[in-house]
Amino acid sequence: MAAITAAMVGELRAKTDAPMMECKKALTEADGDPVKAEELLRVKLGSKASKASSRITAEGVVAAYISGGVGALVEINCETDFVTKNDEFLALANACAKLIAEKNPADVAALAALPLNGKTVEEQRAALIGRIGENMSIRRFKRFETSARLAAYLHGTRIGVMVEFDGADEQVGKDVAMHVAAMKPVALSSADVPADLIEKERSVAALKAAEDAAKAQAEGKAPQPAEIVAKRVDGSVQKYLKEVSLLNQPFVKNDKQSIEQMLKAANTAVKAFTMYIVGEGIEKKQDDFAAEVAAQVAAAKQA
Asked: I need a labelling partner for 128 at 20 to 30 A (CA). Which of 56, 200, 262, 303 fits?
């Protein structure tokens, strides 16, 4: 049996918003596996256990650039929220987005080697670290090049979306980009949802059905036929697919229409989209706020 530490319990609680004791029980049952423990909490507590799963865990910005049918999204991370307001940091992010669109680097390393204002991007990054006194890194980017059209939406600097679409009305593309930022679909259509996400959802639904069956048996009720249980599980999966696929989602500006219906009415087709949420999937270290402020003041005095 794996030892369940306070740190493990704290991390699971931060991800799920579940009560501390429930987190500990789930980790114990999962033999310390945090992924399995999160699934168990979802079975026991429903959607409440996944409320905080998309919580921002690192700082930084997303920048976008579009010129004709060429565009790019880039995420650049830093240690604290202070730096995300820094003009030089923002200028670096915007310059990188433009470079990605214009020069088509193969990866982050290739981007770092590109020239920028008489130095390489990496040299500019290192110099900025020296001036600000805080580490920063270029995490990821996505480049588009298309004969269709591109639209982008930035929710502040923390969420960025780029949409590739065919259609005469540019506003439709911008509306879809804004919708993606708000509703966070994982795929364009149900058929495009990754198989591992589907299987995870099916596993959760099956475990929930088994728990319901055990509860019914304990109450002396007759168990549901296997085919009914199978239909319930499949129904849960189908509901999930509709919730996370862009075309099936209700349009945020008019929930009487699905995105697919809205696009059809506008004679528009979405070909692809990319969404970046700052810090998604990165664990943010827990710093003492007072110490953080003191460090920023000290760095400012040395500048």
From this structure: 56
Gap between the Cα atoms of 260 and 250, Å rounded: 9
Its CATH class, for the domain covering 59-183+272-302, is: alpha beta
What letters, b where the CB count within 10 A reaches 16 and e where it falls short, cover 107-118? ebeebbebebee
- Give pLDDT tens digits along the chain (303 positions): 678 888 888 788 766 656 677 788 888 988 898 888 887 877 765 544 444 334 333 799 999 999 999 999 999 999 888 899 999 999 999 999 999 999 999 999 999 999 999 999 999 998 898 888 788 899 999 999 999 999 999 999 999 999 999 999 999 999 999 999 999 999 999 999 999 999 999 998 888 888 887 887 788 888 788 888 888 899 999 999 999 999 999 999 999 999 999 999 999 999 999 999 998 877 655 545 455 555 555 655 555
- The CB density around residue 171, as the number of other CB atoms within 10 Å, is 10
Residue 82 is encoded by which pair of tokens?
């202070």
Strands 254-258 and 136-145, bridge-based pairing: unpaired
Q: For the full predicted model, state whether its pTM sits above 0.70.
A: yes
CATH fold of 1-53: Helicase, Ruva Protein; domain 3 (1.10.8)
